[in-house]
Amino acid sequence: MARHNGGRGWYGKVLGAALGVTLLGAGAAWGTAQAGTLGGSSPTVSAKPGSDVKRVEESIVHASDKGARGVNITIDDGPDPVWTPQVLDVLREYGVKATFCMVGTQAQAHPDLVKKVVAAGHRLCDHTVSHDTAMDKKSEAYQSQEILDAERMIIKASGGVRPMYYRAPGGAFTPYSRKLAASHGMRPLGWNVDTKDFEGPSADTMVATVEQELPNGPTVLFHDAGGDRAETVEALRRILPQLKEEGHTFGFPVR
Q1: Model confidence over 147-178: pLDDT tens digits?
Q2: What's the rounded Cα separation, in Å, for the pair 178 and 167?
Q3: What is the rounded CA–CA span in Å between residue 162 and residue 124?
Q4: Helices 140-158 and 12-24, interaxial angle, to 10°?
Q5: Residue 231 class from Cβ within 10 Å (0-12 exposed, 13-18 middle, 19+ buried)?
Q6: Which residues contact 67 (CB under 8 A, 6 or more apart)?
Q7: Positions in the chain short of pLDDT 50
Q8: Closest Cα partner for 158 from 113, 106, 105, 97?
Q9: How many Å apart are CA 232 and CA 195, to the nearest integer?
Q10: What whole-number distance in Å separates Cα of residue 82 and Cα of residue 224?
Q11: Half-sphere exposure of residue 61, counting CA atoms within 13 Å on the CB side?
């Protein structure tokens, strides 16, 4: 994903109030949940940060658990009340599971959608509180707050299901942020195919991008928030059956 808008972007509009609520509740326990609820084979971990969480690899993952012909569909920046339901409808229509990289403030604002994502068998990913694409230039304390507050927001919104991955906004990973996420059971998640739907290309362009860049690797990046995502929905509606016809299967990033 490109470092769109050079910083926090549209999330700054909702950050203040949401972050204040989060910080007040930062020490609260959210109970326990099974990360394996979504994938079947993933380890059981506690939803309370720091208690019985299984560390995962801190290297950035791209590979699919479906092997060489696998494709990982990843959806960033939501949930959004207009576009996330439409994305979910398309994924359901074609029997595809995806990984939703959620912004903490959006998850907090739309817990019903977070629960729908989980109920449909998709996986959750921590995409920070405020989507600051320059967070790799900030202090470790700031990075920690962005990642761990978003984790708590997502867990609470989901009803206790932990995010299984961490994706840095704009790819702004640091060794510290990767290590921190991994210690909380969240595998750092990269991408191989950037549809650049945040820039407003047509569905035709996005489909062509996926076809051209998929040989680079299996993880494909789309968005379900941050603007009009009608072309994204259309691109998904076209590319999913096309990839199936070409012999691809859809999976999750390896953990």
Answers
A1: 999 999 999 999 999 999 999 999 999 999 99
A2: 9
A3: 7
A4: 80
A5: middle
A6: none
A7: 1-50
A8: 113
A9: 9
A10: 9
A11: 24
CB neighbours of residue 60 within 10 Å: 17
b/e per residue, 200-218, with b = 16+ CB within 10 A? ebebebbbebbeeebeebb
Query: What local confidence, expressed as pLDDT, does residue 113 receive?
Result: 98
Half-sphere exposure of 210 (CA within 13 A, CB side): 27
Structure tokens at 237: 């509606």
Residue 23 has, within 13 A of its CA and on its CB side, a CA count of: 10
What is d(CA 186, CA 188) in angstroms, rounded to the nearest whole number?
6
Determine the residue type at 149. Answer: D
CA distance 41 to 83: 30
Tokens 């060489």 sit on residue: 68
The whole-angstrom separation of Cα 253 and Cα 99 is 8
Q: Please, which residues bridge with residue 222 across strands?
A: 75
Helices (H), 50-196: 83-93, 104-109, 111-119, 140-158, 175-183
pLDDT of residue 7: 39
Strand partners, 34: 44
Q: What's the burial of 95, exposed, middle or buried (CB within 10 Å: 0-12/13-18/19+)? A: exposed
Active site residues: 76, 223
The C-alpha atoms of residue 26 and residue 229 are separated, in whole angstroms, by 32
Q: Name residue 75's beta-bridge partners.
A: 100, 222
**What count of other Cβ atoms lies within 10 Å of the Cβ of residue 27?**
8
Establish whether the linkage from the previous residue to 79 is cis, with ω within 30° of 0.
yes
